[in-house]
Amino acid sequence: MNICKINIYVSDLDFAIQWYSEVLDLKRSDDHDNYPTCIDLIHDRNIRLTLHKTERDTEIEIWKEASTIITFEVENIRATMKDLKERGVRFYNEEPVWFPDGERIAFNDPFGNVHELAEVKKQGNETMEC
């Protein structure tokens, strides 16, 4: 099996399109555009990110409730954090946390969905998988 699509549920589709475009630099795709129900975002991999309109936001208490988290791999986690903080993103911690594969830090979108940034460490000349 391969993952082909990740659905992100949002209470305000228009604001979500704006937020994901302006804050995370993901653009609206012309493919699979079913506005005002859902739209795809352009991503650099073979996985579709689809925003879906729902009735209300989620209230996940991270690490205490079951949830799905999208992890965005970045080259420089601190520089990306600084940029996202300037765009209004609030992170769960002040500093990234070390994991065996590198550093990670979680944040929310405006609808309560939890995402992460990850900077994977290099071993020798190879970069570990995210």
UniProtKB/TrEMBL annotation:
The record's InterPro entries line, in alphabetical order, gives:
Glyas_Bleomycin-R_OHBP_Dase, Glyas_Fos-R_dOase_dom, MMCE/EMCE_epimerase, VOC_core
Can you give the residue ranges of the VOC domain? 2-120
List the transmembrane segments: none
Q: Which UniProt keywords apply?
A: Metal-binding
Keyword Cell inner membrane part of the UniProt annotation: no
This chain belongs to the protein called VOC family protein
Lineage of origin: Bacteria, Bacillati, Bacillota, Bacilli, Bacillales
